[in-house]
Amino acid sequence: MQKEIEDAVKEPRGLSPEQVFNMPISSAIPKKPILKFDAHDGEVDAVKWSPVDRLVATGGGDRKVKLWDVSNGILEPRGILLGSNRGVMSVDFDSTGTVILGASSDQATRVWTVADQRLRVSPHLNLTHFHS
C-alpha cells in the first residue's frame, strides 16, 4: 500500500513540459481511495510523509499536529503534538525525520521532536533552550 501511495503522488522528474502534459492522467492519479479516515476535528490543512519512516504528519484546524504510523498497512495513531494557538496550516519533517515543524495561522512556527513528541521551539520559548 505504501508503494502505491508513493507512486501515486510522485512528481515526474527529468521530463520536459511536453512529456508531462502528454502523460496519461490515469497513470498518476489513483482511481479510488486506498485509505480514508477522520484525522482531525474539522478540516485537515496539511499532510506530510516522513522522509525515513512510514509515518505521516497531519495538521488541522483543531490546532493539533497528529502523527500516524502506516508501517503495518493500516493506519495507527502515533501521537498528538500540542502547542499551537490556531489551526496548523503546514507541517514538515527535517531530513532525518527526527523533528517536525508546524506553522499555524497565528503566524508562528513550532518544532517538536518526533521520538518523545515534546515541543522544543515555539514563539514563547527562548531558542537557547533548544537541544537537539
Number of helical segments? 2
Choose one word for the global shape: globular
**Strand-residue proportion:** 25-35%
Measured between the Cα atoms of the first and last residue, the distance is 33 Å
Q: Which value, in Å, is the CA radius of gyration?
A: 17 Å
Helicity range:
under 10%
Q: Strand order within the widest sheet?
A: 1-2-3-4
Low-confidence stretches: 125-132
Structure commentary:
By secondary structure, this protein is mainly β. Helices cover 10% and strands 33% of the residues. A hairpin with a 4-residue loop joins strand 2 and strand 3. The two termini are 33 Å apart.
Can you give me a brief rundown of this structure?
The protein has 132 residues and is mainly beta. It is 10% helix and 33% strand.
Keywords:
globular; 4-stranded antiparallel sheet; 33% strand; 8 strands; disordered C terminus; 132 residues; mainly beta
Helix and strand topology:
Blueprint: H1 2-9, H2 17-21, E1 44-49, E2 55-60, E3 65-69, E4 76-81, E5 88-93, E6 99-104, E7 108-113, E8 119-121
Antiparallel strand pairs: 1-2, 2-3, 3-4, 5-6, 6-7, 7-8
